[in-house]
Each structure stands twice: as structure tokens, then as C-alpha cells.
Amino acid sequence: MSTLEQVKQIIAKQLDKDPSGLEETTDLQEAGFESLDVIEMIFNLEDAFKIDIPFNANETDTSQMKTVGDIVRLVETIQARGTTPKSGPAAADDIPAGGTAT
Amino acid sequence: MRRVVITGLGAVTPAGITAPETWENVAAGRSAIAPIENLRPGLLSVPIAAQVLNFEASRYFNSKQANMMDRVSLFAVVAAREAMADCGLVLTDEIAAMAQVIIGIGVGGMVTLDDSFYRLYAEKNARCHPFTVPRLMPNAPASQVSMDLGLKGMTFAVASACASGTHAIGLAFRAIRGGDTDLAVAGGAEACVTTGTLLGWEALRVLSFDTCRPFSKDRSGLVIGEGSAILVLEELHHALARGAKIHAEIVGFGANADAGDLTSPDAQSAARAMWLALSDGQLAPADVGYVNAHGTGTLMNDLVESTAIKSVFGDCETPLVSSIKGVVGHSLGAAGAIEAMATALALRDGLVPPTANHREIDPAIALDVVPNIPREIAIDAALSNSFAFGGLNAVLALRRYSSGCRG
Predict the structure, then answer these.
(1) ipTM of the assembly?
(2) N or C: less crowded end of chain A, CB within 10 Å?
(3) Which of B209, B296, B300 sits opposite A90 (nearest CB)?
(4) Helix/strand/coil (H/E/C) assignment for every residue in chain B
(5) Is this model's pTM higher than 0.90 or not?
């Protein structure tokens, strides 16, 4: 299965929707993502792809995680880098952002 | 109307194991955030916390007493003993019968839970210590305080995550003002620096790996803390009749719920909680000289909270705002109580505690957040804010005590 199809499945399951309803250009927020959905998606992506996504909800830039296609590129970038799991968000310079607060 | 004053303070925090020691370090902005000690190694990524490191239970309890309590209850009882001693009250049967104990917790007996599950699943030892349940029940700190001090009024725990300590004090304040009792012991306690708890917070991706920098443009998240602060609240005439010293007065309590997102704060709703506290305390925004902020150091909280503060104080001079979490971290259910204590002492001493670890002004915040250096300034009234996961907001309004009549 392609990365796109896997990402679509993960996101669709969280949204309780059919994966066929998602496109590369689908905006996650418009599709129904709320504050914790981004965090849960990251967790699910890490499990599914056996990668470590150095994501910190305190980073400001969410512009690179808006669409399904953005998430596919995020996964592929990290896979290409060969990041080892459990390195912690200390290296999160270029990975954007969520919306959790308290 | 019956007035409610704070006559006793006690605290066990990362910044000190008494209220005066805590206040000295909080007022100086000396951060107690440090590398994590005493946890099972190899499981956590987050390297820092605000821990109570020099707390020896044997200084306060014999082994039989200590054995009945989780760390969270040890903190609460030690703080409560200090608060009662500080208030100088000679307990009579009549006062003991009415004295309420209301203690907020966010998660409760996590050390017991973590150790028990470690034994069960990691060590495959299914023999569970017989005190596991009484140690970790959420009401354990309240019950242990009641038993230790001999207080027999209504006693219970409040659970509203990071607002628990504030809700607990607010409820005790209302009980006294409403005439249910003349005395209450209220506050919060937490001992959540365990591997399991920290892993849970790590998974939320909100922890800082650097330090807690509330309101700083380069803030990087929150740092988990632990501890307890306990306040003795007393009806004014009851306190005056016995010549008690008065730290500060509580005049208002405002609390509400966002009924919206589980974890993202809501500026309008937070502002409404502040309005509720002001109007409950018959204060106008212009009366308030200081806001002790929830100020967790996350991107979102500090931005939303500053928006809420500006909307409340928009038409008058904006008060000083600071967060003490750069010093004591975020101790969940204890945080609101430690901050209420700091707010009371800021009013009493005319000294606003600074926001520690602040490096860079955030133009989006646009408040005087008293960066790093305490501010000597007489203040008449202050708010203490707490905003919790689950959309629960709680705000206390306090005044510098003066004996004059209030309209």
C-alpha cells in the first residue's frame, strides 16, 4: 500500500470517515480535525510507519501540516532521513505544530 | 456580608518545603526546574521537572504513618500542619466540628499507582500491597489532613485537573462567606513526577525540554512540577476575635466551563471566569493591580490567556501579570493553591513575583509580565487564574487586608 493510502486510512479512521472521501488536497481542519486530533495522528503515524516524528505542539508554524498531502510528505521526509525512534522533540526545528495548551 | 481572610499558609514545593521558603524563592524568581532525579531510567525523553527533592518523610512522620500515605498525601499533610501552626488557632471541639477540609488534586496517588503497576506487569508480582487503595484514592489527601489535624467538618477532594486547587479554595471561601462554617482548610496537592505520568504528558507533545518560559516569545512548553499548598481560611470576625494575623482577604470566586474543546483554551470563556470573580468580589477591573496568571509556558495557553486578560482590562490600565510556573513548574492540582498563596503574599508584602526564565518579549502578548525581576509595588486587589483541561476555568479575587468597611 502506498504511503498516501496508509495516511488516508489513519486519518479517515480518526475522523470516522471512509478513506475514499479524502484526497491529497483535503484540508485536515476542514475535514473535522480538532486540537487533539493532530497529536493522535502523529502517534498513529509513528506506530504505523515505525518512525519518530519530532513534533512539539509549542512550535508556531502549522502551515506544512494542513493537508493530507502535507502529512504524506512529512512521513516520507522522516523516512528518508532514517530518524531513529525515541529521540524526543528536541530536534523539532522544522516540524510544525498543534493546538494543545493547558 | 461575611468576609473571608487567609490566616494560615503552608507549602511543600520544588522551591521550598515551607511557605516562607517557597515564597522567598518564588519572589526572587529562582527557578527550581532541574534534571529529573529518582525515576526508573531509560523510559523518558523529557529530561526536566520541578521536583520536591529535599523532602524526608521521616522528618514529619513515623514509619507507620508514612506507610499509609502516597507522596501526594505526605505533601498535603505537611503543608496543612504548617498552615494550622501558622494560623495560631487553638482548636476547640466546636471549631473542629465545623472545620471543612477541601483539597484539590489533578491525578492523585500516582506514585502508588506507578509502583503497583510496575510490580504487577514488569516484575510479574501479583501481590498487591494492602494499602494500595487507601493510598491512591483521590480523597486521600483531604482525608489524611482531616485525620491528622482532627478536623471534622465536611471534607472532600476536588478534581478539575489544573484548576483543582483554585476550585477547592473557591468552594471553601463560599462555604465560609455563606455561613456554613467559620473555618476551612483548603488547597491542592500533587505528586505526579512519575514515569507513567510524564510519558502521558510527553505524548501530548506539550512538555518543554528546555525550561518553562511563560509569556516569552521563545517559550517551549510546560514543565511538570509537584507539591502542595494549603490555606487556612477564616471568617473575619472569628479571626479578629482571637487576634489572628491576616495574610490577605479572599473577596471573590468565579468559575465556569468552555463546553468546547477538550484541551484548547477559550479566551472569551476564560475572560468570563475573570469577570465572574471580579463581580463576585465587587471589584472593577481598575481596582486590580496584579494578575497571577495560569501562564503554563505553552504557546497556546499564554497567547489565549493574554487575550483574555486584555479583553477584561482593555478599558483601563492593564495590571501587572506574572506566572510563577517558571519557578515551581506546573503541579496540576496543586498549582492553583500555590499560586493563590503567592498572590496573597504579593498583596501582603507589596511585592509582585516575577515571571522567571523570560528571555524575549512576545509582541502578541503585549502585557507587562514582570520578567525575571520582582516588582516592589503596593497592590490593593489581585486575581489568580487557573484554566484546566476539560475547559474548566477558576479564578480567585483577593484583596490586601484592611480593617475598613467594604460597601
Answers:
(1) 0.75
(2) N
(3) B209
(4) CCCEEEEEEEEEECCECCHHHHHHHHHHCCCCCEECCCCCCCCCCCCEEECCCCCCHHHCCCHHHHHCCCHHHHHHHHHHHHHHHHHCCCCCHHHHHHCEEEEECCCCCHHHHHHHHHHHHHCCCCCCCCCHHHHHCCCHHHHHHHHHHCCCCCEEEECCHHHHHHHHHHHHHHHHHCCCCCEEEEEEEECCCCHHHHHHHHHCCCECCCCCCCCECCCCCECEECEEEEEEEEEHHHHHHCCCCCCEEEEEEEEEECCCCCCCCCHHHHHHHHHHHHHHCCCCHHHEEEEECCCCCCHHHHHHHHHHHHHHHCCCCCCEEECCHHHHCECHHHHHHHHHHHHHHHHHHCEECCECCCCCECCCCCCCCCECCCEECCCCEEEEEEEECCCEEEEEEEECCCCCCCC
(5) yes
